[in-house]
Amino acid sequence: MRIETKGLVILEKCVGENDRLVTVLTDREGVLRAFAQQAKKLKSSKLSATQLFSYSCLSIFKGRDKYIIDDAQPIEVFFDLRKDIERLSLAQYFCELAGALAPQEAEAGDFLRLMLNSLHFLSKGTRPNALIKAIVEMRMLSLAGYMPNLVCCAGCSCYEADQMFFLPRSGLIYCGDCYRPSSEQAVVLGRGALTGMRHIIYSEFEKLFSFTLSPKGLKELAKASEYFTLCTLERGFQTLDFYRQMKTGQE
């Protein structure tokens, strides 16, 4: 069976001297792993099309127990990501997150669209890195079925207050009157951060990246989104740890 699809390479591993084993996020087949034979040869059309971050047209043969990339033509390689170590490490984190959350052998167009737009804004530097990171984390978790309930206070149905308390493990928010300290650590959200988080979760995709926050609001949003990701998935990410190191080193 042959598959003609477009996909984003989210992981690459060298196999022998000339071959690659790549993990690709596709729109119709979800996440799949495929061999790209002779992909590292200089004259191969697969050389740039199967490297990390490459968005490519792929011709894939599906065998009984493996996929083989017969042909690959690059559409966008996001070269500018490699010019900045912080952006590069953040892009690698996005790829690892997609590998953990996107479905396998199932439709994943929304995941792919989110990744492509995120890498575009990240490579161009037109949005703060922290904002793009929060958007990817919250939206991707929501796509995967982990959408928090941010409509109103879980206690009294209050829509907003000067301060709301977000519980990452429960995925709920409480106003100051209803919140009671417990073993579950809460993240305090001002009006701006809560509005931003709601926008990420509930907005149409065309408007997803069309908002800004104050430095204080962005800091609150970034803290809440990362904590929500780690609590929900109950695991860490090596790429996230590396991004933190790079970010700290440049501050």
TrEMBL record:
Keyword terms, alphabetized: DNA damage, DNA recombination, DNA repair
GO cellular component, one term: bacterial nucleoid
Coiled-coil segments on the chain, per record: none
Gene Ontology terms: biological process: DNA recombination; double-strand break repair
Domain of life: Bacteria
Domain DNA replication/recombination mediator RecO N-terminal residues, every copy: 1-78
Function as written in the Swiss-Prot or TrEMBL entry: Involved in DNA repair and RecF pathway recombination.
Family affiliation: Belongs to the RecO family.
PANTHER family named among the record's database cross-references: DNA REPAIR PROTEIN RECO
Descriptive protein name: DNA repair protein RecO
Organism: Caproiciproducens galactitolivorans
Lineage of source species: Bacteria, Bacillati, Bacillota, Clostridia, Eubacteriales
Gene coding for it: recO
